[in-house]
Specification:
Distance between the termini: 23 Å
Strand order of the largest sheet: 1-2-3
Number of helices: 2
Largest sheet: 3 strands, antiparallel
Oligomer: single chain
Shape: elongated
Helix content: 10-25%
Number of domains: 1
Length: 97
């Protein structure tokens, strides 16, 4: 199937690779190493979204958005934050005949 889609040069394959969570590993690990050691946090269940957008300029953007929260639920120590990772930004394939 991979070859039938055109391999790595296929816009569809490139979009699917950006949706895969593997693309997030380096920035997420960096964030965990830098922030988590000072402020322990965890994900908020059900608050990870991935969107694929085709912009008017024929570029495709894949955006991951995730909400995190503190391990400590007491009001004085509780915090939440949302991070966003945008990947892709490549010319889309033409759907015109």
């Amino acid at each position: 199937m991979y070859n039938a889609l055109g391999g790595d040069n296929s816009p569809l394959v490139r979009v699917l690779k950006c949706i895969n969570q593997e693309v997030l590993a380096p920035p997420v690990l960096k964030m965990k190493m830098e922030i988590h050691k000072h402020l322990a946090y965890k994900d908020v269940r059900g608050h990870w979204t991935v969107s694929v957008r085709l912009k008017a300029d024929d570029w495709i953007y894949v955006t991951h958005m995730k909400r995190e929260q503190s391990h400590d639920a007491t009001p004085e120590n509780h915090f939440e934050f949302t991070w966003c990772f945008v990947r892709g930004a490549f010319r889309s394939f033409s759907i015109r005949s």
